[in-house]
Design goal:
Largest sheet: 7 strands, mixed
Shape: globular
Structural class: alpha/beta
Number of helices: 16
Oligomer: single chain
Length: 502
């Protein structure tokens, strides 16, 4: 019997092309485009294209989806490699293509697994959503993890964002993938049950609270300083002098009345031993009850480097980055790769990881859970920081990504971390987006990009924890695993009935 989707199944090349296009279009759901409503529709198309195909075709379509998604959504990798990694255009294009093709293998594996776990009926959509979340969870861990462009990350402003404090980004991804499967079922089978489920998925979250935590006491005034220094000149002697002068002058001019002052990641491009005399002189010009927080590079007695954040004045604590970026902050297979091309010799690309369970920083009576740059995209890492803090702080050097969409996606994920944990978040960056985010994930103030600036505002310490802060991603992961297991068992029963009937 012909159905509405028969043309796709009758023309495999068309399904291949649409799967690739759906992956590419999924980038539109994320910042700066923010078409969050498009995600369930694209997932409905992907779900439809993932039906009836043989194993090899399924694997191929999974890889095509990943190529489309990462080819458009992580195009900023080329900017980092070419513009700031001292790599020529042909080699930068090759490395970017290799990066995209490799990441696409995750979706190849997801589609392949789904091929063996898809039952008939409405349960098919639930198994599809479960596979999607299992795949995202695996990608957050495998090979140090790359939790970028998750379906749920685009939903920070959507009507289902109340699910974020309940189950985090993975619960949001589950709902988007499930909605897509149900919409496809509704279109093909005109199933009223699927329609009711979609309505419940998108209307019931409105009954949930967006805030599970409450302000602890009076707010603190903060100032986030953005130097906008040239990345390629930063580590030269003249660049170091310019950095010190820029951050000192901006702070004295516009930030000296704040209780907490934050400079971004490696704001001073020098070792701590070189920076401390200057920082102490800087601190002496501020009020005694002011805390100055800055990112810089530390070196221990053994010569190991750490990407760190330190406090001065009315505060205490040191944070050393725990989750390092491969190739950017350390080099896997160092003895084989270092010196091979200039990209593998970036400044300070030999960091050591700090402790995995760090203490929060303390600034003027506020405890701050810290995540440096890329760490903010890891949901459970930030959850751990939020568990023992009143507010969150992330510092970043997004100059590596120029005018690309990367920093805007980065900011979107930082906002979701604030919402998941109901914590105010301070985000100080080298050239933007520097912003203050409230406990519901909304930006309350932001600095202009690509110019020196000082952003002032207020941060409220928060009391209480969201379900996600307490339990993390386990509930969403267990739900996904149950859906996959149930789908696989039902499929097995269905196949046995078919075999016995034959």
């Amino acid at each position: 019997m012909k159905t509405l989707t028969s043309p796709l199944h009758d023309r495999p090349w068309l399904s291949d092309l649409l799967t690739l296009g759906a992956g590419a279009a999924m980038t539109l759901t994320f910042a700066p485009f923010n078409a969050w409503w498009l995600a369930p529709l694209l997932m409905a198309l992907v779900f439809t294209c993932a039906q009836r195909a043989r194993v090899k075709r399924m694997l191929w379509r999974g890889w095509l989806f990943g190529v489309g998604l990462f080819g458009t959504g992580t195009s900023w990798v080329y900017v980092s490699i070419h513009d700031f990694g001292y790599t020529g255009a042909p080699l930068a294009l090759f490395l970017t293509a290799l990066f995209v093709a490799t990441l696409a293998l995750f979706y190849m594996a997801m589609f392949g697994l789904y091929r063996f776990c898809r039952p008939r009926g409405l349960l098919n959509a639930w198994a599809f959503a479960g596979i999607w979340v299992i795949g995202e969870l695996f990608r957050s861990w495998a090979f140090t993890g790359f939790p970028w462009l998750y379906l749920g990350s685009a939903q920070v402003d959507s009507p289902i964002n109340t699910l974020a404090p309940l189950g985090g980004v993975y619960l949001l991804s589950f709902v988007i993938a499930l909605t897509g499967g149900l919409i496809a079922r509704l279109v093909e089978r005109r199933s009223w049950v699927a329609a009711v489920m979609v309505a419940l998925l998108w209307l019931s979250p409105s009954a949930l609270p967006l805030e599970w935590a409450v302000p602890l006491d009076t707010p603190k005034s903060v100032a986030l300083v953005q130097g906008d220094l040239a990345q390629l000149d930063k580590w030269t002697p003249s660049g170091q002098r310019q950095a010190a002068n820029t951050y000192a002058s901006l702070t004295r001019r516009d930030a000296d009345n704040a209780e907490i002052i934050v400079w971004p990641e490696t704001a001073l491009p020098m070792l701590e031993q070189q920076a401390i005399p200057f920082l102490e002189r800087m601190q002496a010009t501020l009020d005694s009850d002011t805390t100055l927080i800055t990112g810089l590079v530390q070196q221990d007695a053994k010569g190991h480097y750490f990407n760190s954040v330190i406090t001065l004045g009315d505060g205490h604590g040191v944070y050393k980055k725990a989750h390092l970026v491969p190739f950017g902050e350390y080099l896997p297979l160092d003895s084989l790769l270092r010196g091979l091309i200039d990209f593998f010799n970036l400044p300070m690309s030999d960091f050591k990881a700090g402790p995995s369970d760090p203490e929060p920083l303390h600034a003027d009576g506020v405890s701050l859970g810290v995540a440096i740059c890329y760490e903010i995209v890891y949901p459970d890492l930030v959850r751990q920081r939020a568990h023992s803090s009143d507010a969150l702080l992330t510092v970043s050097n997004d100059s590596w990504f120029g005018h690309s969409i990367g920093p805007l996606q980065h900011m979107q994920m930082a906002r979701l971390r604030a919402l998941e944990n109901n914590r105010y978040l301070l985000r100080a960056t080298s050239n933007g987006l520097t912003a203050i985010v409230d406990s519901t994930g909304k930006i309350t103030a932001k600095a202009p990009r690509f110019e020196p600036a000082v952003l002032t505002g207020m941060v409220y310490p928060m009391k209480g924890m969201t379900p996600f802060t307490v339990l993390g991603s386990w509930p969403a992961g267990i739900l996904a695993a149950l859906m996959v297991l149930t789908g696989a068992l039902v499929r097995l029963v269905q196949k046995r009935k078919e075999a016995s009937a034959a």
